[in-house]
Design a protein that fits this description.
263 residues, Rossmann fold, six-stranded mixed β-sheet, three-stranded antiparallel β-sheet, 8 helices
């Protein structure tokens, strides 16, 4: 992991909404620095503003306060430098897996030949284990396979950063673990900086280099940050057998319980 700590900077980030009863503060004074190649897990209770932070970073939601920097430039609005994967892959049902990935590739590589674009699409579908399913439509794919297409589509854009909003939340536990390992392999190989929103402490510990814990809203902010000591690339058995694993897990659970009591 790069030691440069300012590849991504979220400075004093805030989001408010007007209501008939006054201003509702969702996120307030959210500060975070992310190193190049680092994987961040963002956890907290439902409704605390995790997804709001992610969509502000993605440029899909305009921040009310603060600024966002990526690679030494301030960003506003969406762009292909940030790939986004949501809980539901949002595939176009009438298009094949190949064509769903191709949509983004053609936009990001407008000067590439059709053969070059095909190679990019095939490469990333192969990386997610769907090389033999490229011509299948979403209805012919399982939920886990559809999410693989969503990850391939985001990674095929060659983004500087990958943003994942509970991408495995709708999957069974076995498929979830399989896709966590697949995702880590892609992030390690391509050295992509990533932020994943999750409510699963075990997922956060297995995937992330640091776990950022958000306080419960309203006016949610960074409550604590846990550095994860497990080396990458990760092996699930070694992670679970690490002498600090359950101590770190307990720290995350205790934080979430404290937020329950404070609510």
């Amino acid at each position: 992991m790069d030691t440069h700590e300012n590849f991504v900077e979220l400075f004093n980030l805030g989001k408010t909404y007007p209501t008939p009863h006054g201003v509702h503060v969702v996120v307030e004074a959210f500060d975070l620095r992310i190193a190049k190649g680092e994987i961040i897990a963002l956890i907290g209770h439902s409704g605390c503003g995790k997804s709001t932070v992610l969509t502000m970073l993605a440029g899909l939601t305009e921040s009310t306060d603060g600024s966002i920097g990526l690679g030494n430039r301030e960003i506003s609005g969406p762009g292909p430098d940030r790939g986004v994967v949501f809980q539901s892959p949002c595939l176009l049902p009438w298009m094949s897996a190949h064509d769903n990935v191709m949509l983004g590739v053609e936009r990001v590589y407008p000067d590439a030949t059709s053969e070059e674009c095909d190679r990019i699409v095939s490469y990333y579908l192969g990386r997610v284990g769907l090389g033999d399913s490229a011509r299948k439509r979403p209805r012919e794919l399982s939920q886990g396979m559809q999410q693989r297409v969503g990850i391939a589509r985001a990674c095929a854009l060659a983004p500087q950063m990958l943003l994942l909003d509970e991408p495995f939340g709708m999957l069974d536990s076995l498929t979830r673990m399989e896709l966590q390992e697949m995702l880590l392999q892609i992030l390690d190989r391509d050295r992509i900086t990533a932020l994943m929103v999750t409510h699963d402490v075990d997922e956060a510990l297995f995937v992330a280099d640091r776990v950022v814990m958000m306080t419960s809203g309203p006016a949610a902010r960074v409550g604590d940050i846990l550095r994860v000591p497990f080396p990458r690339p990760r092996n699930r058995t070694q992670v679970l057998e690490h002498p600090q694993y359950y101590e770190l897990r307990e720290r995350l659970i205790t934080f979430l319980e404290e937020q329950d009591r404070a609510a």
